[in-house]
Design goal:
heterodimer; A: mainly alpha; globular; B: mainly alpha; elongated
């Protein structure tokens, strides 16, 4: 097990290197120079060349890349070209907000998706199944940002209720912090929940046809035990795989949701940085996201072994 | 579709090609469509929606009662009525007309992107599987890195790099879509490559271009078609999300996503119809393509369940 984890981490290195190269090159393709933009808006330096030298942007790009990579390995993501704040400390402030949102969304996806999927499979072709499947189709079709608009708009029309827009930091009031994330997290999680529900239903239907499930019935076990103890555990592995993929989907969706609800997380940070062509910030955020996704993939693989003792690493 | 043309008369006649879609009998299209509708009612509904969108997109200038950017005197933020049945917006423009023209954007972006992405994905996927070796390993590592990013993040960075605009949007979206699709096409090619008829063709001395053209491509075509249909819905969704964030198609051109953000959002408490109808249009379009794609996949190639990458 430990050897496997180590091997996986070593294999992740080339992937991360290629990703870092993409992360580094992409923002540099942005036409229009950050230097020019800065000179227009504020007097940061005497002239273009002076400013460029100050920011270290006058060196060849490969040199800049190696420099940046060396700093990253030592735990330094550079500083924002605009605010001169270290990227790492800004990320440290925003990552927990996004992480809380993402974790809540994932929880919503599981809590809604798996039980409804189970019920739909057990009562296949019944009324509940029909409802569950229609809901899933709806959840997959209505994009998160449309849903976000609807949930802020409809209650306002019907009951004159609007969600509060003032963001409460965790330090001020932990309860209010979590509470304000619930609605965005539900919206963010619903699309994933629909996918998970469909998959859970499909896998469970397949497993329920197996001989050992018939044996469990024949032993006189109650439905609850047959479904939850014998069948579900064997149906859930592909669901875990998809859950791993949902981490990336949720990270992407969070960008839009944070923007709509004015949540000061990584997504908002990224959109601002892209508009301002703040290279180190864009690089830092993208790198952070890649690391999170690589880590969650590893976690998914380790979960397999936990769920299915036959899988050993 | 699966029959290789028997040019030269030797290979085509001698070698069986695994049938993909083509039944031995000549299809009667009416029957085929009716059968499909009976087996996959949701898919058929999706098909009807897709067809209506196509009609709206092609004949937008005939269907829409007003040009998309023209202000109508004295009709600022009017609620839905007989005259403007989706109401008018803050610049006195007819929303129904804008939704109709919006279909043109969604369809254009959707089809152009999917065409471009499919072309790239097929080139990368088939060549990667066919050539194998170092080339395959190298290409696949790049694809790995590419698809491990969240789609929207990649797209935002690309759009920032290219700047807003229709063509750039299509390029950015297709680069993203191609990576995931190429992986599936590579897999399909690998399985075709392992089949005896390819080996037989090679033994008979067929060159690489001939094998790819007559044996590999026709047999991965079903996979490619299904990926393309499912991709359409995702691309339309991605375009809407990007325009919503302000990285898509600049105003005054009426992209559904853009109508929902900006003025649609700032005025929605006074004129809810400004946000509701574009939102409904996006959802309906995504629903239509999704259902049609799912149904086509089930009918043509059930092995592809869950094989598509998602954009947002």
């Amino acid at each position: 097990m430990r050897a496997y984890v180590l091997r996986r981490l070593v294999v992740a290195v080339p992937s991360l290197l290629i990703a870092s190269l993409i992360v580094f090159t992409l923002p540099r393709l942005i036409p229009g120079d950050v230097v020019q933009l800065m000179l227009e808006e504020k007097a940061y330096g005497k002239d273009l060349e002076d400013l460029r030298a100050k920011l270290g942007l006058n060196r060849p790009i490969p040199v800049q890349y190696v420099d940046w990579l060396g700093a990253v390995v030592r735990g330094n993501l550079g500083e924002s070209l605009w605010t001169r704040q270290p990227v790492l400390s800004e990320l440290a402030r925003r990552l927990p907000v996004s992480a809380a949102l993402g974790a809540l969304a994932l929880a919503v996806a599981i809590v809604i998706g798996v039980p409804i999927g189970v019920i739909a499979a057990v009562r296949q072709d019944g009324v509940l199944d029909f409802f569950a499947r229609s809901l899933a189709v709806l959840g997959l079709s209505v994009p998160a940002f449309v849903m976000a608009i609807l949930v802020t708009l409809l209650p306002a029309i019907w009951w004159g209720w609007t969600p509060r827009t003032q963001f409460v930091p965790f330090a001020t009031s932990p309860a209010a912090f979590v509470l304000q994330l619930v609605l965005p997290a539900v919206i963010l999680g619903i699309t994933s929940a629909a996918g998970i529900m469909r998959l859970t239903r499909g896998m469970l239907l397949e497993v329920l046809r197996h001989d050992y499930v018939r044996t469990a019935w024949a032993k006189g076990l109650r439905e609850r035990e047959v479904v939850l103890k014998h069948a579900l555990k064997n149906a859930v592995i592909p669901v875990i795989t998809v859950l791993g993929l949902q981490v990336a989907a949720i990270a992407g969706g969070a960008v839009v949701i944070e923007w709509v609800f004015g949540i000061p997380g990584m997504g908002q940070f990224l959109v601002d940085a892209i508009v301002q062509r703040d290279y180190p910030v864009i690089q830092g955020i993208n790198l952070m996201i890649v690391v999170i996704i690589v880590a969650s993939n590893l976690l998914v693989d380790l979960t397999y072994a936990f769920l299915d003792p036959r899988i050993r690493y | 579709m699966a029959e290789p043309r028997s040019s030269g008369g030797t290979l085509g006649g001698l070698l069986p090609v695994a049938p993909v879609l083509a039944p031995a009998w000549r299809p009667r299209w009416g029957r085929l469509v009716l059968d499909f509708a009976r087996r996959k009612p949701l898919g058929a509904i999706g098909g009807v929606i897709v067809l209506s969108l196509l009609v709206m997109a092609v004949f937008a200038d005939r269907i829409a009662p007003h040009p998309y950017a023209s202000s109508i005197a004295g009709a600022r933020m009017k609620p839905p009525s007989v005259k403007h049945w989706m109401g008018t917006d803050n610049l006195s423009r007819d929303i129904w007309s804008r939704v109709v023209y919006g279909a043109r954007i969604s369809i254009t972006v959707g089809f152009a992107t999917v065409a471009l992405a499919t072309l790239m994905a097929a080139a990368v996927g088939v060549s990667s599987a066919y050539l194998g070796g170092t080339y395959d390993i190298l290409v696949q590592r790049v694809v790995d890195a590419w698809i491990s990013f969240p789609g929207l993040v990649v797209i935002l960075s690309l759009m920032a790099a290219l700047g807003p605009g229709l063509l750039n949007l299509i390029i950015a979206l297709s680069i993203l879509g191609a990576a995931g699709a190429s992986r599936v096409i590579r897999g399909a090619t690998l399985s075709v490559m392992a089949s005896p008829y390819v080996e037989a063709a090679r033994a008979l001395g067929a060159g690489h271009p001939r094998i790819v053209r007559l044996y590999v491509l026709p047999n991965v075509l079903a996979t490619i078609l299904i990926l393309a249909t499912i991709g359409l819905g995702q691309v339309i969704l991605a375009e809407a999300a990007l325009s919503f964030l302000g990285f898509g198609i600049p105003p005054p051109y009426p992209s559904w996503g853009a109508m929902l953000s900006g003025s649609g959002r700032s005025f929605m408490y006074y004129a809810p119809w400004m946000a509701l109808f574009p939102g409904a249009a996006i959802s309906l379009a995504v629903f239509g393509f999704q259902m049609l794609g799912d149904a086509l996949r089930d009918v043509l190639d059930p092995r592809l369940r869950g094989a598509s990458g998602s954009v947002s």
